[in-house]
Amino acid sequence: MTDGDMSWIRVGKTKAWKQAKPEEIKAMVEKLNPESSRMSGGQIAGLVFGLIGMMALVVIVAVVLVKRRRRLGAVSNEEILKPYSPHEAKMPHIK
Questions:
Q1: In Å, how far from its chain's centre is CA 85?
Q2: What is the mean pLDDT of each run of 10 residues along the chain (95 residues)?
Q3: What is this structure's pTM?
Q4: Would you kindly state where each structural domain of the chain is located, as residue ranges?
Q5: Membrane-crossing residues (predicted)?
């Protein structure tokens, strides 16, 4: 039963009733049932799957970035290590 902000609660197993504020009711519920504030199995499973997914995403991004960097680095290294050929050099002809 409620009366404005106050709720009527039964005192123990007696037939007596008293008014209680919402904060008092919440404290009593947590005191009588401490498991109610814990995470459920589904919530824990969701959290675990979310964390595993985030870790997998970080690993995938790191692998892609490393491969891209190696590939771009290999192209520039090939150009640097390319043997010099005087025929390919573009120098102005001196007359």
A1: 55
A2: 67 78 76 73 94 98 92 67 62 59
A3: 0.43
A4: 2-37, 39-80
A5: 44-66
